[in-house]
Design goal:
By secondary structure, the chain is α+β, with helices and mostly antiparallel strands. The chain folds into two domains: about 10-55, no CATH class; about 60-130, Thrombin, subunit H. Helix content is about 15%, strand content about 40%. The strands form two sheets. The protein has a six-stranded antiparallel beta barrel. A hairpin with a 2-residue loop joins strand 1 and strand 2 (about 55). It is globular and about 60 Å long.
Length: about 140
């Protein structure tokens, strides 16, 4: 097999050809699975296949770029953030500084105050799921 030239960018065809050549000894289903994962056209509709995975979100997302303040904990800790996308059930944010959002809280944006719980957090990014405030 010829050496790849650094001045020629890889295309889907070159990747497919390279994988076929390198995977001749691999069982065909495994090779087909690898090709499918690399070359499939991904769908963003909830509940439809996304490559080999399924979209787990229950609501469509809308990309936004909105400033927000995240408030949580008994000490009313706060952090500034940018909302990257939003849906009926939650939103994804990027914090201005790396900090851990511990526990439930409120997010303030666009003259709104929404209660949330942290669905996931990695570095400065987080997914917040909207909740209903507990009744006292």
């Amino acid at each position: 097999m010829p050496e790849p030239r650094p001045d020629v960018p890889y295309s889907a065809n070159r990747i497919r050809t390279s994988l076929n050549a390198q995977c001749m000894a691999i069982m065909p289903p495994v090779k087909d699975c690898i090709l499918t994962m690399l070359l499939v056209d991904c769908s963003s509709t909830p509940g439809t296949p996304k490559g080999m995975l399924f979209e787990r979100r229950s609501a469509d997302r809308k990309a936004v770029n909105t400033r927000a303040i995240v408030v949580w904990g008994n000490d009313l800790m706060r952090a500034f953030a940018v909302i990257l996308d939003i849906s009926e059930t939650g939103l994804r944010i990027r914090l201005d500084h790396e900090t851990e959002i511990a526990g439930d809280g409120y997010i303030l944006f666009d003259h709104r105050m929404e209660p949330f719980r942290v669905a996931w957090q990695a570095n400065r990014s987080a997914g917040l799921q909207f909740t209903m405030p507990s009744e006292a």
